[in-house]
Write a structure and sequence with these properties.
mainly alpha; 16 helices; 0% strand
Length: 353
């Protein structure tokens, strides 16, 4: 059996019952903050929704969404190219929506990484190389967020006196250091993780949880894919310089477009827009979302967003901003991701090249 045939017959390593449960939890938590705001308004609020249904705003939103989705696909595509893995650009667009769906209905976006590796493996890329590509892609965006976020958290006036800085600032800084340190250890001290994983398999064998043949088979596959992961990561820095630079540029464009949606909504609502301030506030908000244990940071994302922007708008306008921001950046992509995922999973064999 050819490797491509084997990859095409792989089943998605995600429990459907867990996915359904996480999806329900995501919906409930996402509604928590908007419902709370509505209750505080005592039924007296006038949404400016008509302002957001003008042709000018709709065209602008579609343009920003296009930049957002395309740059998301390009940052993975250029990362793959820098690793020596060449795929048609058109294959990246479905992965954008599949990742949006699964990363937002699983805690800490864990499902998104699994599905991306599965999708790329079906395209003929080894698991180690696919894992390296998604890890490097994530690390690039993480560093662009984590490096300036603590500085902004303690330098922006409206954040300095907020609970985010006064009560949680130290913990957020510690989590950021541990998060980056984990990735650096994974990339530079990969053999430690190989030894640790081997020890876990040996322990499972001694406890009679797995047989000897399965232990040998799993140990071989694990070491093989982790070694491929290490080689692929090294290839990123030794690969084509243009692809590396374009991976960085497309990541920066992706993050800028992601952070620009509140500014677009404020502009559509006729409110004053301090664009640099909006970008800085959204960078801090996204930084905090990285550590949210809920599916898609649901509940926490809306709550932190409301705390950050509460001094800029009236409660009614704030509700519209929260709903519009989450719909454009998350919910719309998830809705598109449902039929895209069903189509991708139904295919028995992907064409390579």
């Amino acid at each position: 059996m050819k490797p491509s045939d084997l990859a095409s017959r792989m089943t998605l390593p995600v429990n459907p019952f867990k996915i359904i449960g996480f999806a329900v939890l995501f919906v409930l938590l996402s509604a928590l903050v908007p419902v709370t705001i509505v209750k505080e308004l005592n039924g007296q609020f006038d949404l400016l929704w008509r302002e957001l249904f003008t042709p000018r705003f709709i065209v602008s939103a579609l343009a920003l969404l296009t930049v957002y989705y395309v740059s998301d696909g390009l940052r993975l595509w250029f990362t793959l190219r820098s690793l020596g893995q060449h795929q048609p650009l058109r294959t990246m667009l479905p992965l954008v929506f599949i990742n949006l769906l699964f990363s937002n209905i699983t805690p800490m976006a864990t499902g998104g990484g699994v599905v991306q590796v599965w999708y790329l493996h079906r395209r003929g890329i080894h698991i180690g190389a696919a894992t390296a590509a998604t890890t490097v892609r994530t690390l690039l965006s993480s560093l662009m967020i984590f490096l300036p976020a603590p500085v902004l958290l303690f330098s922006i006036d409206r954040l300095v006196d907020s609970p985010l800085a006064s009560q949680w600032g130290g913990w957020l800084g510690l989590f950021a250091v541990l998060y980056v340190a984990f990735f650096l250890l994974l990339l530079w001290r990969l053999r430690w993780f190989i030894h640790a994983a081997t020890a876990v398999l040996a322990l499972a064998h001694r406890l009679h949880l797995i047989g000897e043949s399965r232990q040998r088979r799993w140990r071989f596959r694990l070491r093989r894919e982790m070694i491929r992961f290490g080689y692929s990561f090294q290839a990123f820095f030794k690969g084509n310089l243009a692809d590396l630079v374009l991976a960085l540029v497309s990541t920066a464009i992706f993050l800028t477009s992601l952070f620009s949606f509140p500014a677009l909504l404020l502009w559509g609502m006729g409110s004053p827009v301090d664009y640099p301030l909006i970008l800085a506030l959204m960078l801090v908000n996204t930084f905090i979302m990285y550590f949210a244990p809920t599916p898609g940071a649901a509940g926490i994302a809306e709550g932190v967003f409301a705390v950050i922007f509460t001094s800029l708008l009236e409660s009614g306008d704030l509700l519209l901003l929260v709903l519009g921001w989450r719909f454009l950046t998350v919910h719309l992509g998830m809705l598109i991701g449902v039929p895209v995922s069903i189509y991708a999973f139904a295919r028995r064999k992907d064409s390579h090249g």
